[in-house]
Give the backbone structure.
Amino acid sequence: MKPIIKKIRNENNDFQRIEVVKRNREKRNRYRQCFVEGVKSINFAIENNWKIEAFAYSREAPLSNWAKDVLANSMAKTHFELPLSLMEKLSDKEEDSSELIAIVSIPDDDISRIKIGNDSLIVVVDRPSSYGNLGTIIRSCDALRVDGIVITGHAVDIYDTRTIRASMGTLFTVPVVRLQSHRQLLHWFNDIRQNHKDFKIVGSSASGDALIMDVDLATRPMALVIGNETHGLSYSYKQLCDLLVRIPMHGHITSLNVACATSIMLYELERQRIATRD
């Protein structure tokens, strides 16, 4: 079925619906939709079979071949044609406005979206408070072969445009599930252990028991738990972990930015995995 083309000439209800999905977390959750712009982000959403509800664009400026191709192959229900001034009002780009904006359906926060195999690596992030850090962590997880990400506790919204932008669109390439508490992980972790006796839960802490490179982290499956930027791992997570590891620090500073620390640890995990395979 071809998309329905709707022309928006002013800030009507359709425009306001797009705009509120962009800026309001409560409405995103209610409508189960998020606002996506940028070539990489839209491409990743399409390539990974996320449901596109609508595209918005303007005919007042020539569309690139990429945009024309996306629209020609679109499975969205609706195409909104806007004046260029309204596209500029919606877009977060500092110079030229985006030529395409996508409204994408948000999937259920179902832990079964993360598939567990013999070589799986899961990253659990507890109460992330920075859009930039969370997006960067997601990006590193995509680069370093993480199979799924779980966000627990009161956290910034993974579907905020700032998170999506910081992730460079990789939010759409790695399953990310939000849970209210670590308690919701307990049954899932127990199920994994039933099928994978060597399953380990490893926590990151500046006061960890061992340096990360001194611990065998090639054995899989494994969950790597990352704490809050300010408060680190909660007591509950420390109790849940099989061991706590730390990154060696040689300067005067006692901790690293959480996104930097996560990337370093994921690199070490990947290094060990490659060394074991070789």
Observations:
- DSSP finds ten helices and twelve strands in the chain.
- The chain has a mean pLDDT of 95.
- The domain at 111-277 is CATH 3.40.1280.10 (Alpha/beta knot).
- Residues 227 and 233 are 4 Å apart (CA to CA).
